[in-house]
């Protein structure tokens, strides 16, 4: 019975160690060997993405109007 308990304890400890290693070794590798990659990426909210797309669309429409010389009223039926 003692050998079964010891075997189970060692195998569970080894399993937990391997799991933690797989989680944290890539992070430690980046921190130690590639510190220039250890920066937080800029995150944009969905609202900011929609607003940027709307501004981009309106700017492209204005530039098209200037190139064509005709003024086109936006469709406000939506």
From TrEMBL:
<dbReference type="GO" id="GO:0016020">
    <property type="term" value="C:membrane"/>
</dbReference>
<dbReference type="InterPro" id="IPR050726">
    <property type="entry name" value="mGluR"/>
</dbReference>
<keyword id="KW-0812">Transmembrane</keyword>
<keyword id="KW-1133">Transmembrane helix</keyword>
<feature type="transmembrane region" description="Helical">
    <location>
        <begin position="12"/>
        <end position="34"/>
    </location>
</feature>
<keyword id="KW-0325">Glycoprotein</keyword>
<dbReference type="InterPro" id="IPR017978">
    <property type="entry name" value="GPCR_3_C"/>
</dbReference>
<protein>
    <recommendedName>
        <fullName>G-protein coupled receptors family 3 profile domain-containing protein</fullName>
    </recommendedName>
</protein>
<keyword id="KW-0472">Membrane</keyword>
<dbReference type="GO" id="GO:0004930">
    <property type="term" value="F:G protein-coupled receptor activity"/>
</dbReference>
<feature type="region of interest" description="Disordered">
    <location>
        <begin position="58"/>
        <end position="78"/>
    </location>
</feature>
<feature type="domain" description="G-protein coupled receptors family 3 profile">
    <location>
        <begin position="1"/>
        <end position="47"/>
    </location>
</feature>
């Amino acid at each position: 019975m003692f050998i079964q308990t010891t075997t189970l304890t060692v195998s569970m400890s080894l399993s937990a160690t391997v799991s933690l290693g797989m989680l944290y070794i890539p992070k430690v590798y980046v921190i130690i060997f590639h510190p220039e990659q250890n920066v937080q990426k800029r995150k944009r909210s969905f609202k900011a993405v929609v607003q940027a797309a709307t501004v981009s669309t309106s700017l492209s429409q204005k530039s098209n109007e200037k190139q064509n010389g005709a003024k086109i009223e936006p469709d406000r039926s939506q």
